[in-house]
């Protein structure tokens, strides 16, 4: 039997104890290994380019260069779409920063007090190219801060022009993605095959020039396609 590929992780946090603790937890998993550490955002960008990890665990508040800008630089360098995925580390009191990190290209986030099982599963989910969107806090963040955007401004108008490129069914799927539904849940709601939903999601990402489902959800809220707390 072919052995599953090991997920390579880069840890970026200015607190040594946090890096050491997460390293111990992740290295204990048979399919995950920590290949490097960074003490600030500048080093995170450099190490991500050097080591080409599958996932970067990124703290938001770090010296020299914060996690949001480091995330943006790492994801913008990933033009082929096969580079590192960023998983943001945060606490409950940093909602606005987390949302900005998602807009910068992060695939999701974990709270720093996450259990060992949650940490490992979060890394696996992001490494698969999926997003830590739902249930719960990420969706709340997107709703809260995207709802504050001016969708009638010139930026919002340009975003709506991009929505016009989608078919009616693709627009429907995008709205359901933004509400945090999985491909299977969307398939059940639309009464179609799960593979059909996957195809729609792939086409949506290509048409809109987005990296993953998290970016798609942010886009849907920013355009007003999905409204906080409503349809």
UniProtKB/TrEMBL annotation:
Stretches assigned to the HTH luxR-type domain: 159-224
Record PTM 4-aspartylphosphate, positions in chain: 59
Record PROSITE patterns: HTH_LUXR_1 (PS00622), HTH_LUXR_2 (PS50043), RESPONSE_REGULATORY (PS50110)
Electron transport among keywords: no
SUPFAM superfamilies: C-terminal effector domain of the bipartite response regulators (SSF46894), CheY-like (SSF52172)
Keywords assigned: DNA-binding, Phosphoprotein, Transcription, Transcription regulation
Protein name: Response regulator transcription factor
Record bears the keyword Cell inner membrane: no
């Amino acid at each position: 039997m072919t052995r599953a590929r090991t997920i390579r992780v880069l840890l970026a946090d200015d607190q040594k104890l946090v890096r050491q603790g997460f390293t111990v937890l992740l290295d204990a998993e048979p399919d995950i290994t920590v290949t490097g550490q960074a003490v600030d955002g500048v080093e995170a960008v450099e190490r991500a380019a050097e080591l080409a990890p599958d996932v970067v665990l990124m703290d938001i508040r770090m010296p020299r260069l914060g996690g949001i800008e480091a995330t943006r630089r790492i994801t913008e360098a990933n033009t082929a779409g096969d580079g590192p995925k960023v998983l943001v580390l945060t606490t409950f009191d940093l909602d606005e920063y987390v949302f900005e990190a998602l807009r910068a290209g992060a695939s999701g986030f974990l709270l720093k007090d996450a259990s060992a099982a949650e940490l490992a599963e979060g890394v696996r989910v992001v490494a698969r190219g999926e997003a830590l969107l739902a249930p719960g806090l990420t969706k709340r963040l997107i709703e809260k801060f995207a709802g504050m955007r001016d969708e009638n401004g010139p930026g919002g108008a340009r975003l709506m022009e991009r929505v016009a490129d989608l078919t009616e069914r693709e627009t429907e799927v995008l709205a359901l993605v933004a509400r945090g539904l999985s491909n299977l849940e969307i398939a059940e709601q639309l009464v179609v095959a799960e593979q059909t939903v996957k195809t729609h999601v792939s086409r949506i990402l290509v048409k809109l020039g987005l990296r993953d489902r998290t970016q798609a959800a942010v886009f849907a809220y920013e355009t007003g396609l999905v409204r906080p707390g409503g349809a």
